[in-house]
Write a structure and sequence with these properties.
By secondary structure, the protein is mostly helical. The protein has one domain. The protein is built from five helices and no strands.
Length: about 100
């Protein structure tokens, strides 16, 4: 098992141009975060999270399994049954409060 990599140490030697390129490459995650914060509807928030997960899964190099899984889950969330499931889950969580 590999030791966890400290992000500060991993990116410490990058030039400003390399840091800007890295920020540019990963900026879609910031956009998804902004959309999530601005959205009030829980189902639409779940779609934004699904989109962000699809984008993130596409950036991994290990296997295509994560891409397939995220696409399937995203398709479920976008269906009427998926929307009903999200709204049901939110309602149940609200009852517990």
């Amino acid at each position: 098992m590999e030791a966890a990599v400290d992000p500060e140490q991993e990116y410490q030697g990058l030039s400003i141009w390399e840091q800007l390129r890295l920020l540019s490459e990963w900026s879609p995650l910031l956009a998804y975060g902004q959309q999530f914060i601005a959205e009030l509807d829980p189902h639409k928030k779940s779609i934004i999270v699904a989109d962000a997960c699809e984008w993130l899964a596409s950036k991994t190099r290990a296997t295509k399994t994560d891409d397939e899984l995220v696409k399937l889950l995203s398709a479920i969330l976008r269906s009427p049954q998926g929307e009903a499931l999200v709204r049901w889950g939110i309602a149940k969580a609200e009852e517990v409060k």
